[in-house]
Write a structure and sequence with these properties.
With about 120 residues, this protein is mainly alpha-helical. It is about 50% helix and about 5% strand. It has five helices and two strands. The protein has a two-stranded antiparallel ribbon with strand order 1-2. A hairpin with an 8-residue loop joins strand 1 and strand 2 (about 85).
Length: about 120
């Protein structure tokens, strides 16, 4: 080889922007936004994940799905016409999203997302 030494590295980078995979820990910074994105949403889980990933590409789809699975449940609440996605009470408390201001904001978001369905149901009656 003529005395040439090539530096070889077996260390694999955890994440690079070029990889397109996203940082698996970036979602931890954006959990509040994910909760607001899916709170009282009637969209499919995959549509929410895809939309969130397009808005926050630094979050990998796999990490979004993991957090979604851990903290988001589909259920019918209060005046809901159909089951919708909601954050668990535990994660709201952990993220300090259980304050009256945030709860009011989430309630308004829920009302806005359910309004078209409520109007449709009222028309049918």
């Amino acid at each position: 080889m003529g005395g040439r030494v090539f530096p070889l590295s077996i260390d694999k980078p955890l994440w690079t922007a070029e990889s397109g995979a996203g940082d698996p820990n970036a979602i931890l910074t954006y959990r509040n936004q994910l909760i607001k994105a899916c709170y009282a949403s009637l969209e499919s889980k995959q549509a929410i994940v895809d939309d969130f990933n397009s808005k926050f590409p630094e979050c990998s789809k796999k990490s979004i799905e993991r957090v979604f699975k851990e903290f988001i449940v589909k259920e019918k609440r209060d005046n809901d016409v159909r089951p919708a996605w909601y954050a668990t009470a535990e994660i709201l408390k952990e993220l300090q999203m259980d304050s009256p201001e945030v709860v009011e904001e989430l309630k308004a978001l829920s009302d806005m997302r359910m309004e078209p369905l409520l109007k449709e149901v009222q028309k049918e009656e």
